[in-house]
Design brief:
By secondary structure, the protein is an all-alpha fold. It has a single domain (49-186), classed as Tetracycline Repressor, domain 2, CATH 1.10.357. It is 75% helix and 0% strand. It is built from ten helices and no strands. The chain has helices at residues 6-21, 28-35, 39-42, 49-73, 78-95, 97-106, 112-138, 147-159, 161-167, 173-186. Helix 1 crosses helix 6 and helix 4 packs across helix 6. 26% of the residues are buried.
Length: 189
């Protein structure tokens, strides 16, 4: 197995620290100390905290965008599309749980084009879910509830899944997918 690059190590360490303390509370010195190196050494591999934050958030945002593009490219009904969305949210949660903390809690610290790019990806993603929900209601596949309530209920659960998943002792992913899809699509009744 190829060892991780120093830049990857820096980003991974920073991601953990951002999750624990928040972006603003972490300094480059904190990252270096956690890695057991001098802060000045970090700058041989990365320009600063902003680059780390951008890398973390935009990587995860692209994963969501790619997942959505795959769902939209398939001939599926609305419920099948929502099921696939829930499943790839779970996959992203398992793979990028620390980066999700930065995405959810620290995205507003992005700057300039990175901020615009993130907000566009997030808004497009939410709009695609909204359209799928409305199409499902129109087709009679989804109960006639307010689309914004469905959107909020589904995405707020999925966005904070990384917090719950970590506390639950990392429940088997296949069970999580099966049961979360069932609960979000059919409720608990």
């Amino acid at each position: 197995m190829k060892p991780a690059s120093r830049k990857t190590e820096i980003i991974t360490t920073a991601s953990r620290l951002f999750k624990e303390k928040g972006y603003n509370a972490v300094s480059m010195r904190d990252i270096a100390q956690a890695m057991g190196i001098k802060a000045s050494s970090l700058y041989n591999h990365i320009s600063g905290k902003q680059e780390i934050l951008s890398t973390l958030i935009l990587t995860v945002a692209r994963e969501f965008t790619n997942g959505m593009e795959q769902v939209l490219s398939k001939k599926l009904n609305s419920l099948q599309k929502i099921e696939k969305i829930i499943e790839f949210h779970i996959d992203i949660t398992v793979t990028y749980s620390e980066a999700l903390a930065a995405l959810n809690n620290d995205w507003m610290h992005l700057q300039d084009d990175d901020l615009k790019q993130f907000v566009t990806m997030r808004d497009d993603y939410e709009e695609n879910v909204r359209i799928i929900i409305k199409e499902g209601i129109k087709a009679g596949e989804i109960a006639p509830r307010h689309p914004e309530v469905i959107l909020f209920s589904m995405l707020s659960t999925l966005r904070t899944l990384y917090l719950w998943y970590e506390k639950r002792g990392k429940l088997d992913v296949n069970i999580l997918k099966r049961d979360m899809v069932a609960v979000l699509l059919k409720g608990i009744v």
